[in-house]
Amino acid sequence: MSALSHGSGEFDALKNLSARIGADPSLVQAAGGNTSFKQDGVLRIKASGTWLKNAQTEDIIVPVALAPLLEALARHDPAAEKASDFVIQADNPSGLRPSIETTVHAVLPQRIVVHVHCIETIALAVREDAETLIAERLAGLDWVFVPYARPGLPLSRAISKRLQPRTNIVILGNHGLVVAGETVAETADLLADVTGRLMQPDRAVPPPDVAVLSDLVGGSAYALPAEVAAHGAATDPVSCDIADGGSLYPDHVIFLGEGSVIARDGERAEDVRLRVAGEDLPDPVSILFPGRGIVMHEKANAGAQALARCLADVTARIPADARLRYFTRQENDELLTWDAEKYRQALENSRAGKTSGENI
């Protein structure tokens, strides 16, 4: 039996690594990120909508027949997108659906693949000069930069075009990081090396004005965020300006909606909601009050709360003079109308009994 057999020590090591990175908000937020291993023609990958931090306590792994999936990908079969048709159902007692990034893991030849939404990576990968900046930091490593493509099939194909025989690091423009190796230990070490090289100083942000925020949400469907750190996106002027520019990475769009909603002078939370409603838009999941902090809709799920904190973490690492690549309207719409992401949100909402910004 090979080292990566289901239930082996190496598989347990992958679950341990998954749980560890899933519990680290600098690497993974909410149900984002995914890990996988390949063995005997089977790709075992994190299920869509599940949380990596639960890898040791819940069934979150789905077995997928690798060769048929790759064949479908090669012939541009739309079935490769969800990958559900290639699940080995006899070994999937929970009826889980594969990650939306299953084809990304499939096109990489290494046995172990780890994909994270590392805030250090994102803070660089959203910049127009991202490839040049990252090249300085990853000198000597076998890496490629892939400009933004929608997660799933478009991203898999974009990666395939840039892969070299020794590539084991993929920087995803406006998205995140993928590392790969033949063992869990090797892959974990590579992840630590790359994220360490990409680390940047973050600005010290002013604390929130809780008293004022509490008054501004009075009588509305809004409340303070679950994490104090989330306020930094509004209390820091540079971060707030960056957030005001639009969407920078996929999970922000999925969990918080397109861009950020910024309160105007004199507006209270309910005023902002009514203004947005007048534009035929859903209630904002979050509202940024410049210099004061942020508030979250009472129906915001745990994923939205995590991504609110992510916005503060990412923007605090971006210099004021950085030239950024924001999502186009089409790129935002592709994410908001994508069936795979609607499925992931449905799982998140059913788990918490709440809704996301898409359905508020």
Number of strands: 11
How many helices? The count is 16
Order of helices and strands: HEEEHHHEHHEHEEHHEHHHEHEEHHH
Low-confidence stretches: 353-360
Q: Can you name the CATH architecture of the largest domain?
A: 3-Layer(aba) Sandwich
Distance between the termini: 50 Å
Q: What's the CATH C level of the largest domain?
A: Alpha Beta
Please state the average pLDDT score: 93
Largest sheet: 7 strands, mixed
Short descriptors:
360 residues; alpha+beta; L-fuculose-1-phosphate Aldolase; seven-stranded mixed sheet; four-stranded mixed sheet; 11 strands; 40% helix; disordered C terminus
What is this structure's SSE topology?
Blueprint: H1 9-22, E1 34-39, E2 42-46, E3 61-65, H2 66-74, H3 79-82, H4 102-107, E4 112-116, H5 119-125, H6 130-137, E5 143-146, H7 153-162, E6 169-172, E7 176-181, H8 184-197, H9 210-216, E8 222-223, H10 232-235, H11 237-244, H12 250-256, E9 261-262, H13 269-277, E10 286-289, E11 293-297, H14 302-315, H15 329-336, H16 339-352
Parallel strand pairs: 5-6, 9-10
Antiparallel strand pairs: 1-2, 1-4, 2-3, 4-7, 6-7, 8-11, 10-11
Helix pairs in contact: 5-14, 12-14
